[in-house]
TrEMBL record, chain A:
Protein name stated in the entry: Splicing factor subunit
Pfam family, one: SF3b10
Species in which this protein is naturally found: Terfezia boudieri ATCC MYA-4762
Domain of life the protein comes from: Eukaryota
GO CC, alphabetical: precatalytic spliceosome; U2 snRNP
InterPro entries: SF3b5/RDS3-10, Splicing_factor_3B_subunit_5
One of the protein's GO biological processes: mRNA splicing, via spliceosome
Family named by the database record: Belongs to the SF3B5 family.
The organism's taxonomic lineage, starting at the top: Eukaryota, Fungi, Dikarya, Ascomycota, Pezizomycotina
UniProtKB/TrEMBL annotation, chain B:
Protein name: Pre-mRNA-splicing factor RSE1
Subunit structure: Associated with the spliceosome.
One cellular component term from this protein's GO annotations in UniProt: spliceosomal complex
Stored Gene3D superfamilies: YVTN repeat-like/Quinoprotein amine dehydrogenase
PANTHER family per the UniProt record, alphabetical: DNA REPAIR/RNA PROCESSING CPSF FAMILY
A GO biological-process term: mRNA processing
C-alpha cells in the first residue's frame, strides 16, 4: 500500500513539475493541446527553425515568435463539453 | 565498434553560421572600449567596433556546442567590466567573463536548474538583468521563472545565489525586461497571458476574454524572495517591452509595444500612448497596422531616447518628456530605415550596429539625432491612453537615410537557401555559388577560397624584374627607405617617400643583378650580387668582398648580423659581423656534394648575437641544417630528404600554441623551417632550437610552379608568403582563442600570381607587401585574416527559392518568390493610377516614385505573390535577364531537361503555384512553364505552360523526359507542341508532399516533406513507377543527394544530417525484373514499402541543411559531402579511409569531451545527438579545439588528451590539421 502511495505521490510531483505529464484520465483534447504547445515552443526556441518559417513566409522573426506563442493559448480549438 | 556503423565520417565546418540571433553590448575587456558579443548558432563571437577606422573586427569566436537562446550582459556596481550571461539548451545558467590577455571566454558560474534541451517549461528563452547588476531573471515560454541574485564576496569575486522561483502555471510569457529602479528592490516586467481558464471553458467565452497582462515581479533583497507585485491588463496585441530609465535618469517604467500603438506604463503612474506611424504611398495599404520588432534605448548625458524598428525596417525615434518622475508625453517620429534587425546596439562612440535578421549586418555612424528636422512628430497628447479605444492612424513618408550613414557592411550568407559547387573560372579550386538573403535584400553570392587583399600601387617598370626587396637605412628606422629591384643585367634602387623615385647615389652596384639586400648592424647595408658582397656603411664607404676567381655566388641569405652565400662550386662561405661592424669571413668554407639551390639563416633572436642555424638546400633533394655556434661553426646538425629539390627555404619563428613561452610578449612561438620545392610542394617542419633536428613535417601542394618563400608581416603577426602558381599566406588563425594563436592556416591570396615578394612598410602602409608580377611592381596589404572565404554578390529581386546551373554553360538560373508581397505588375499599376488621379506636378517623391526596395522593401499585401526568374552570368557578375511572373503565380522548382523527343534540346522547366497559401497548405493549382534557351543560354524565351493540380515542388530531368513531383504523385511528362504530355504516373508515392527528386539509372529517390526518402524504380517495359524501399524515421527532408547507387545523404528541417542506405538485397531485386511484376505484388511491410532503409550516419549540426553535394573542394583533395545551412554555415563530411584513424579520432573525441567540456554546460555527446543518437560521425570542430585549448589555467590539458591517444601533442595536432587540409580549407 505504501509503495502505491509513493508511486502516486511521485507521479503527482512529476505532473506538477513537468507540464504535460499524462495520467490515466488524460483526454484527447489535453493530449493534443499539449503536443501543439510543445511544438510551438520548439519553433520559438530553436533559432534556425524560426528563421526557416520567417524566410518562407516573409515575416520578421519577432512577429512570428509572438504569433506562435499566441497560438499556444488555444492550439487545438475549444475544449470539448464535459460529460457529467 | 563495428556493430555501430561500418561507415565513419568526419564533420568539419568551413564557414561558421553568419546569422546573429542576439547581440549584447558591454565593456567585456574591462576597458573603456565597448564591445559586442553576438550569438551565432552555437558560437559566441566577440566583435570589437573600432571607432577610429569605423570598422568592426572579429576578436574571438568560440563554439559552445549548444543552442544559444538568449544573452545578457551585466556589471556589478563599482566595477568596470561586464559579464555575459548565456541562456542555452543546457538547462543551466552560464556566466562568462572575457579574458582579453588570453583572448578567451572564462566560465565564472554554471548553475543547473532543469532538464537539458529546448523545452516549453525549462527557462532559457528569456533573460533579463537588473541594470545595476544585482539580479537576473531567466524564464521559459511557459510557467517557469527563476531569479538569481548576483553579488560579490569578500575577495570581490562574483557570486550567484541559489534560484528563487516565481513560477505560475498556465502562464505564457511574450516578453521580459528588467525595470530600471535605481537602487530600490529589483523589478522585472513580463508580458503574460494566462490560458488556464480558456482551457476549461467549452463555450470559448473565456478565450475571447483573455487579457494580456503586464506583470511586475519584485525581488525583495531583504527577505530574499520574489513577489508578483503588480499586474495590469494591456493591449491584447502587445508584443514587446522596453526599459525606461529610472532612478536619477528618468521616470522608470516600461514601453509596451503593440500593434499600431506604443504605450508608456508604470505602476501608479498615468499611462500614455502614441501610434506607430504607417507608411504613406500609392502602393501601401493604409489600413495595415505595424508592430515593433526590435529596438534599443540609449542614455546620454542625462537624456535618453529609443529607436524602435517596425516590421519594414523603419526606425522611429521615441522620446519621453518627464518631470519629477512623471511622464508628461511621448513623442514619436520617423528616424531612418535600416534592415530588419534581431538586435540593435548604439555605441557611445556614435555608431549603430544592426544585427540584421537576413543579409549583411550593418554598422552605421550617426550624423545627427533627428533633433531639428522637418519630420512630422506625433505626441501622446492627441491620443487616448486606453487600449480598448481605437486609434486614429498616423502616416509618414519614408525617405532615404538622413541621420545615419552606413560605414561598414559585414558579409552574412544568412539565410543561405541553395548552393552549387562548380569550377567555372578554371582556377585550381572550385567556387561555391549560393543564393541567399530574403526579399529585396537577397543576393547571388560567389564564394572563393582566399584572403582579401587591397592593392595600393601597381605600376609598370621599364623591364621585367626578377626580384624585389625593401630595406631600412638603420636598425632604428620604423619604415623602409628603399625598394631595390633586380633585373637580369642590373639593379635599380627606388626611394620611398612622398613619391617613389629612382635614386642613384645609394652605393648599390647598379650594373649587376642582386641576390640579396639587407640592413646590417646599426646602420650598414648589404648588397649581394653574383660577383661579391658589397657592404655600404652609413657614410657611403663601400667595402667589397669579391667572390673567388671563376666562381660566382648562386644563392645568398642574410640577417641583421650574418651573411651566408653559396658559390657555383658548391662551397658555402659564412660571414658574421664583428664588434666594429665589419663583416668577418669564417675561414673554412663548407663544401657541399651538389649545387646549392637555396639558403636560409633566419632572424637573429632577440637578445642574441646570431641565429644558430643555417639551412642549406641542394639539388640532390636534401635540406641540411648547419650549426653556426662559434665552437661548432658549419657543423652538420641534421638532414632532411625531400621528394624534389628545394627551391626556397625560410627559417622563422611563428606563434604556436605548443611552442616555448616567451615571457616578454606572453606568447608562445616555435622555430620553423619552411621548405618550398621545385615540384610545387610546401613543407613546414619544426626546427629544434637546441639540437637543430627537424621534426613534425607537414606537407601541402600549392600549385605546379616552384615555391618561393618570404617572411612577411600581416595583421601584426609574422607570416610566410609562399608563391607558386598563385600566392599563399601561412599564418596562425587569429580567432584561435588561446595565447599565441591557434591553428596554422595556409590560404591563397586573391591576387594575381607573383614571381617575387617582400615586406613593405611605409607611413601610409605599415604592414604591406611588395611583389613582382611580370613587368609590374605591386604593393598590397591583407586586411583580414579572420575570413578565408571571399564573397562577391549580385543582387536578386525576391527571396530565392532554388537555383540551377546550366548543364554545360557557366550560367545560373534562379527562381525567386516572396509571399504576401505586391508583384511588380500590381505595383506599377497602383503607381500609375495614383499619378493619374493626383498628377505628378513634377513631384519625384513617393507615391510617384518608388523608393529603392533594397533598402525599403516591397509593399506587402496578404495573399499576393511576387515572383521572378533570373538568368545570371556569374563570371561577369551580372544578371542577364529577369522574367517577372504574373497572375499571382510563384515559382517553386526549376530544372533543365533535355527532351529526347526534341532531338535532345535542353529546355528550362519551372514549376509554379497559383494563389499559394503556405499554412495550411493550399493553392488554386500549379503550372509547369517551359522556356527555350536563346543566345547560348543567356536569354530564355517562354514557350508554353501546362496546368497541374498542385504546385510542382520538385522537377528533374529523367531519361530524356521530365519527372515532376506534384503533391504526393510522381509524373513523367514529354514535351508537346502546346503543352506537356503526361506519359506515366505513380499516385501516392509519398505520404505527404514530394519536395525533392534525385536519380541514377532507373532509380528515383523521392523526398517527402515529412517522411524521409522513398526509393522508387521506374519500369520502362510496364511504364510504371514502383516504390520499393522507405524509411522508418520521419525526417522532414530539406535536401538530399545520392552518394552512391544505394546511399542517400540528406538534411532535415530540425537541423540533422543523415545517410541512409538501401539493403543490398532489396536494391538488387528492384533492378532484376524488367517488368516489375514481382515488385508490384510483394507484400507491404507495416503499411509501407516491402523494405526499409538502414541508417548509416546521423549528426546534429544545429543549422538546417539547405543543400548537400558530393564534390571535391581542394585540388587533388578527396571527395567529400559539402553541405550548406540556412544560417550561413558551410560544412563538410569527410569519409574516413582507415579503421585506425577512426579509432584514433574516437578516442580523441572522448578525451576532448572530458578535458574541454562545452562552455555553456551542454554535454557534447548529447548535443550532437539532439534528435537521434549521433552515429558514425566524429565532430571535427570539437577535435579542432585541441589546437586552441590549454593556455593559462589549462596547463597540461593537451598533454593529457595526447596521452589518452598515446601520441605526442604535435602528432595529434598534425593529424587534426591533415584531416582538414586533405579536403577543405
Amino acid at each position: 500500500m505504501a509503495d502505491k502511495l509513493r508511486a502516486t505521490q511521485q507521479l503527482e510531483q512529476l505532473q506538477a513539475r513537468y507540464v504535460g505529464t499524462g495520467h490515466a484520465d488524460t483526454t484527447k483534447f489535453e493530449w493534443v493541446s499539449n503536443i501543439h504547445r510543445d511544438t510551438y515552443s520548439s519553433y520559438v526556441g530553436h533559432p534556425p527553425l524560426l528563421e526557416y518559417f520567417a524566410v518562407a513566409t516573409g515575416e520578421p522573426m519577432a512577429k512570428l515568435r509572438v504569433k506562435f506563442i499566441e497560438k499556444m493559448i488555444q492550439p487545438a480549438g475549444k475544449p470539448p463539453e464535459k460529460e457529467d | 565498434m563495428a556493430s555501430t556503423s561500418n561507415m565513419f565520417l568526419y564533420s568539419l565546418s568551413i564557414l561558421p553560421p553568419s546569422a546573429i540571433s542576439q547581440a549584447v553590448l558591454g565593456a567585456f575587456s574591462g576597458k573603456k572600449q565597448q564591445e559586442i558579443v553576438v550569438a551565432q548558432g552555437s558560437r559566441l563571437t566577440l566583435l570589437r567596433p573600432d571607432a577610429s577606422q569605423a570598422k568592426v573586427q572579429t576578436v574571438l569566436s568560440h563554439d559552445v556546442f549548444g543552442i544559444i537562446r538568449s544573452l545578457a550582459s551585466f556589471r556589478l556596481a563599482g566595477s568596470s567590466k561586464d559579464y555575459i550571461i548565456v541562456g542555452s539548451d543546457s538547462g543551466r545558467i552560464t556566466i562568462l567573463e572575457y579574458n582579453p590577455t588570453l583572448n578567451k571566454f572564462n566560465r565564472v558560474h554554471l548553475e543547473t536548474f532543469g532538464k537539458s534541451g529546448v523545452r516549453r517549461v525549462i527557462p532559457g528563452q528569456y533573460l533579463a538583468c537588473d541594470p545595476k547588476g544585482r539580479a537576473c531573471l531567466i524564464a521559459s515560454v511557459e510557467k517557469n521563472k527563476l531569479v538569481y541574485v548576483l553579488n560579490r564576496n569578500a575577495q570581490a569575486e562574483l557570486t550567484i545565489s541559489s534560484p528563487l522561483e516565481a513560477h505560475k502555471s498556465h502562464c505564457l510569457v511574450f516578453a521580459l525586461v528588467a525595470l530600471d529602479v535605481g537602487y530600490e528592490n529589483p523589478i522585472f516586467a513580463c508580458l503574460e497571458v494566462d490560458y488556464g481558464e480558456a482551457d476549461q471553458d467549452p463555450t470559448g467565452k473565456a478565450y475571447e476574454e483573455i487579457e494580456k497582462m503586464l506583470v511586475y515581479y519584485e525581488l525583495d533583497l531583504g527577505l530574499n524572495h520574489v513577489v508578483r507585485k503588480w499586474a495590469e491588463p494591456v493591449d491584447r496585441t502587445a508584443n514587446c517591452l522596453f526599459q525606461v530609465p529610472g532612478g536619477t535618469d528618468g521616470p522608470s517604467g516600461v514601453l509596451v509595444c503593440a500593434e499600431d500603438s506604443i504605450y508608456y506604463r508604470h505602476s501608479g503612474r498615468p499611462s500614455h500612448r502614441v501610434p506607430i506611424p504607417r507608411r504613406k504611398g500609392a502602393t501601401e495599404d493604409p489600413n495595415r497596422r505595424r508592430v515593433i520588432v526590435s529596438g534599443v534605448m540609449h542614455k546620454m548625458r542625462g537624456a535618453f531616447f529609443f529607436l524602435l524598428q517596425t516590421e519594414e525596417g523603419d526606425l522611429f525615434k521615441v522620446t519621453l518628456e518627464h518631470e519629477e518622475g512623471q511622464v508628461e508625453r511621448i513623442r514619436i517620429k520617423y528616424f531612418d530605415t535600416v534592415p530588419i534587425a534581431t538586435s540593435l546596439c548604439i555605441l557611445k562612440s556614435g555608431f549603430l550596429f544592426v544585427a540584421a535578421e537576413t543579409g549583411n549586418h550593418h554598422f552605421y555612424q550617426f550624423e545627427k539625432l533627428g533633433d531639428d528636422d522637418e519630420e512630422v512628430e506625433f505626441t501622446s497628447d492627441m491620443y487616448d491612453p486606453d487600449h480598448m479605444e481605437m486609434l486614429a492612424p498616423a502616416y509618414f513618408h519614408p525617405r532615404p537615410a538622413e541621420n545615419i550613414a552606413l560605414v561598414e557592411s559585414i558579409d552574412s550568407l544568412n539565410p543561405l537557401i541553395d548552393a552549387k559547387i562548380a569550377n567555372l573560372t578554371d582556377d585550381d579550386a572550385p567556387q561555391i555559388y549560393t543564393v541567399c538573403g530574403s526579399s529585396a535584400r537577397s543576393t547571388f553570392r560567389i564564394l572563393k577560397h582566399g584572403l582579401e587583399t587591397t592593392e595600393i600601387v601597381s605600376s609598370e617598370l621599364p623591364g621585367v624584374p626578377s626580384a624585389v626587396w625593401t630595406t631600412k637605412l638603420t636598425a632604428e628606422d620604423d619604415y623602409d627607405a628603399y625598394i631595390v629591384l633586380s633585373f637580369t643585367n642590373g639593379t635599380l634602387v627606388l626611394s620611398i617617400g612622398e613619391t617613389v623615385e629612382e635614386v642613384s647615389d645609394t652605393g648599390f652596384l647598379s650594373s649587376a643583378p642582386t641576390l640579396a639586400v639587407q640592413q646590417l648592424g646599426e646602420d650598414g647595408l648589404i648588397q649581394v650580387h653574383p660577383k661579391g658582397i658589397r657592404h655600404i656603411r652609413a657614410d657611403r664607404r663601400v667595402s667589397e668582398w669579391p667572390a673567388p676567381q671563376h666562381r660566382s655566388i648562386v644563392a645568398a641569405t642574410t640577417n641583421s648580423r650574418q651573411v651566408a652565400v653559396a658559390l657555383s662550386s658548391g662551397e658555402i662561405v659564412y660571414f658574421e659581423m664583428d664588434s666594429d661592424g665589419q663583416l668577418a669571413e669564417f675561414e673554412e668554407k663548407k663544401e657541399m656534394s651538389g649545387t646549392v639551390t637555396c639558403l636560409s639563416l633566419g632572424e637573429v633572436p632577440e637578445g642574441r648575437i646570431r641565429s644558430s642555424f643555417l639551412a642549406v638546400g641542394c639539388d640532390d633533394s636534401t635540406v641540411r641544417i648547419f650549426s653556426l655556434d662559434p665552437d661548432s661553426t658549419l657543423e652538420s646538425k641534421s638532414v632532411q630528404a625531400l621528394t624534389s629539390p628545394p627551391s626556397s627555404l625560410c627559417i622563422m619563428s611563428m606563434q604556436d600554441s605548443t611552442g616555448s613561452l616567451d615571457p616578454a610578449a606572453a606568447t608562445r612561438s616555435t622555430l620553423y623551417l619552411h621548405i618550398g620545392l621545385y615540384s610545387g610542394v610546401y613543407l613546414r617542419t619544426v626546427l629544434d632550437t637546441v639540437t637543430g633536428e627537424l621534426t613534425d613535417t607537414r606537407t601541402r601542394f600549392l600549385g605546379p610552379k616552384p615555391v618561393k618563400l618570404f617572411k612577411v608581416v600581416a595583421q601584426g603577426q609574422t607570416a610566410v608568403l609562399a608563391l607558386s602558381s598563385r600566392p599563399w599566406l601561412g599564418y596562425s588563425n587569429p580567432l584561435g582563442g588561446t595565447q599565441g594563436g591557434g591553428q596554422y592556416m595556409l590560404t591563397p591570396l586573391s591576387y594575381p600570381a607573383l614571381e617575387f615578394g617582400w615586406t613593405f612598410s611605409s607611413e601610409q602602409c605599415p604592414e604591406g607587401m611588395v611583389g613582382v608580377q611580370g613587368q609590374n611592381l605591386r604593393i598590397f596589404t591583407i586586411e583580414k585574416l579572420t575570413e578565408n572565404l571571399q564573397q562577391e554578390s549580385i543582387p536578386l529581386a525576391y527571396t530565392p527559392r532554388k537555383m540551377l546551373k546550366h548543364p554545360d554553360l557557366p550560367l545560373f538560373y534562379t527562381i525567386e518568390a516572396d509571399a504576401d508581397t505586391l508583384s511588380a505588375e500590381t505595383r506599377a499599376s497602383l503607381i500609375s493610377k495614383a499619378v493619374e488621379t493626383n498628377g505628378t506636378n513634377g513631384d519625384t517623391t513617393p507615391p510617384h516614385n518608388e523608393l529603392p526596395p533594397e533598402e525599403f522593401g516591397y509593399p506587402r499585401a496578404k495573399g499576393h505573390w511576387a515572383s521572378c526568374i533570373h538568368v545570371i552570368d556569374p563570371l561577369a557578375k551580372f544578371p542577364l535577364q529577369k522574367i517577372e511572373l504574373g497572375e499571382n503565380e510563384a515559382a517553386f522548382s526549376i530544372a533543365a531537361v533535355s527532351f529526347s523527343s526534341q532531338d535532345d534540346e535542353v529546355f528550362l522547366v519551372v514549376g509554379t503555384g497559383k494563389d499559394v497559401v503556405l499554412s495550411p497548405r493550399s493553392s488554386s493549382g500549379g503550372f509547369i512553364h517551359i522556356y527555350r534557351f536563346l543566345e547560348n543560354g543567356r536569354r530564355i524565351e517562354f514557350i508554353h505552360k501546362t496546368a497541374v493540380e498542385e504546385p510542382p515542388l520538385a522537377l528533374l530531368a529523367f531519361q530524356g523526359r521530365l519527372l515532376a513531383g506534384i503533391g504526393n504523385d510522381l509524373k513523367i511528362f514529354d514535351l508537346g507542341m502546346k503543352q506537356l504530355l503526361r506519359k506515366a504516373q505513380g499516385t501516392s508515392i509519398a505520404p505527404n508532399v514530394i519536395v525533392g527528386l534525385q536519380t541514377q539509372g532507373s532509380r528515383i529517390i523521392v523526398s517527402d516533406v515529412q517522411e524521409s526518402v522513398i526509393y522508387v524504380v521506374y519500369k520502362y517495359a510496364d511504364n510504371r513507377l514502383i516504390p520499393f524501399c522507405d524509411d522508418m524515421v520521419a525526417r522532414f527532408t530539406t535536401c538530399t543527394t545520392m552518394v552512391d547507387y544505394e546511399t542517400v545523404a540528406g538534411g532535415d528541417k530540425f537541423g540533422n544530417l543523415w545517410l541512409v542506405r538501401c539493403p543490398a538485397k532489396a536494391s538488387a531485386e528492384a533492378d532484376e525484373d524488367p517488368a516489375g511484376g514481382h515488385l508490384l505484388h510483394e507484400r507491404s511491410y507495416l503499411q509501407g514499402t516491402p523494405n526499409r532503409l538502414e541508417l548509416q550516419a546521423h549528426f546534429f549540426p544545429q543549422d538546417i541543411p539547405t543543400s548537400i553535394t558530393k564534390t571535391q573542394l581542394v585540388p587533388g583533395g578527396k571527395e567529400a559531402l559539402v553541405w550548406t545551412g540556412l544560417q550561413g554555415t558551410i560544412g563538410v563530411l569527410v569519409p574516413f579511409v582507415s579503421r585506425e584513424d577512426v579509432d584514433f579520432f574516437q578516442t580523441l573525441e572522448a578525451a576532448l569531451r572530458n578535458e574541454e567540456p562545452p562552455l555553456a554546460g551542454r554535454e557534447h555527446l548529447i548535443y550532437r545527438s539532439y534528435y537521434v543518437p549521433v552515429k558514425g560521425v566524429i565532430d571535427g570542430d570539437l577535435c579542432e579545439r585541441f589546437a586552441v585549448m590549454g593556455g593559462k589555467g589549462g596547463e597540461g590539458k593537451r598533454e593529457r588528451v595526447a596521452g589518452e591517444v598515446d601520441r605526442g601533442v604535435r602528432e595529434v595536432e598534425r593529424k587534426i590539421a591533415d584531416m582538414r587540409s586533405r579536403v577543405a580549407y
